[in-house]
Amino acid sequence: MKAKKVTEPKKAATPADSDIATSAARFDRIRRAHQKEVAEDYVEMIAELIDQSGEARISDLAARFGVSAPTVNATIQRLHREGLVVTAPYQPIPLSDKGQTLAISCSLRHAVLRDFLLSIGVDPITADADAEGMEHHISDETLAAFKQMTDQKRDC
Question: Structure pTM?
Answer without folding.
Answer: 0.74
